[in-house]
Write a structure and sequence with these properties.
six-stranded parallel sheet, single chain, seven-stranded parallel sheet
């Protein structure tokens, strides 16, 4: 008889995919382990979790702003509703273990699990934890962190466990010729992969279009670009890239990122913790543009850790332009030795066994 495990987290792919990774690890341990995800019907979890073949139930949840306004009052009211919904799900499903992977949706579920004396665990992806996980860490049996630098922000340090960030990739794919064909890429050229996060990033998309235009001769000769634009920006970016068709491929979204990562010789991306964990797992040098409105500016903190370790170069959003990006690209594309050194540093930061470490600790 397997375990019953409830996993809660969502909003963005950065909170969903670590949960998927942990669920896959649990299934590998014992195919009879029964797993239920709890999220909202508006977050990315509503699409991703059923696609991965796991059971899924929803509650209503909303982030609470740190200022007194009508929206905050409404969010507090919704939070109390989510507590009632969470306790109903917990009593009906009766899990042996509850794991929260972040996002406001996991707060009420994990809190109610601790009140019901169900073993509860949380995972913090970012270098600077959100207030929800800081509070929950005082009640959860163990708090797993992705960055050692996070320790100073938690109040209950005795329950912290450095694990790294579980990645969605079930196994690290090696380079495959087939992947080029599937993604409409040229196997004779090096590849710049552009990923703006699970929902895309319009400012990065436009800077890449402008920056590649300035470097068109260099890129056209030896390099190609695979840009994951996000669904909202796809039509506009795809039309702008029309005149670069021979070395520029635009996709709205890519569920199978394990097909793209092995081909990337350089990546331009946001600094979501899950994205960076995957980048490091594959040992890819990166140009990172942190999302400037992330809570507590945690994306810049994530990015600076990679930069400090020689694995990345950081461009702040306020400094982002086609000219700035083309200047950084020019430095890197003309210096293969530097790219190789950055790739090695990136690989050294990778924690491909994070899911295994977390499940080992949970089951113990």
């Amino acid at each position: 008889m397997g375990l019953k495990v409830l996993i809660s987290g969502g909003g963005t792919g950065g909170h969903v995919y670590p949960g998927i990774s942990l669920a896959c690890e649990l299934r590998i341990r014992d195919h009879e382990n029964d797993i239920l995800f709890v999220g909202t019907n508006k977050g990315m979890e509503a699409k991703i979790v059923p696609r991965e073949g796991f059971k899924f139930e929803t509650i209503i949840a909303k982030g609470i702003k740190r200022q007194l306004c009508l929206d905050s009052v409404k969010a507090i009211f919704i939070f109390f509703i989510s507590l009632v919904q969470s306790i109903k799900i917990l009593k009906k499903y009766r899990p042996d273990i509850v794991i929260g992977t972040g996002g406001y949706v996991s707060g009420s579920v994990v809190l109610m699990a601790t009140i019901l004396k169900i073993p509860a665990f949380i995972h913090e992806q970012n270098a600077i934890p959100g207030i929800t996980n800081k509070l929950l860490s005082c009640f959860a049996d163990k708090t797993f962190i992705s960055f050692k630098q996070s320790k100073k922000y938690f109040w209950c340090k005795q329950r912290l466990f450095f694990s790294g960030n579980p990645i969605r990739i079930k196994r690290i794919e090696e380079f495959r010729e087939d992947n080029y064909r599937q993604l409409d890429l040229d196997p004779s050229k090096k590849t710049i992969l552009v990923v703006g996060g699970s929902k895309g990033a319009a400012s990065i998309n436009r800077a890449v279009i402008a920056g590649i235009h300035l470097l068109n001769h260099t890129v056209k000769k030896d390099w190609q670009v695979l840009l994951i634009s996000g669904e909202d920006d796809f039509k506009q970016i795809n039309s702008k890239a029309d005149n670069k068709r021979d070395n520029f491929v635009v996709k709205s979204y890519l569920y199978n990122m394990d097909k793209a990562y092995p081909l990337a010789d350089l990546i331009i991306c946001r600094a979501g913790a899950t994205t960076l964990a995957e980048v490091n797992a594959y040992g890819i040098p990166s140009i990172i543009i942190p999302y400037p409105f992330a809570t507590n500016n945690h994306q810049e903190m994530n990015a600076r850790i990679l930069e400090k370790n020689g694995a990345a170069m950081v461009i702040l959003e306020k400094e982002l332009s086609g000219a700035t990006l083309s200047r950084i690209l020019s430095l890197l594309l003309d210096d293969q030795g530097r790219l190789k050194a950055m790739a090695q540093k990136s690989k050294e930061l990778g924690r491909i066994d994070a899911a295994k470490k977390i499940i080992d600790a949970v089951l113990s």
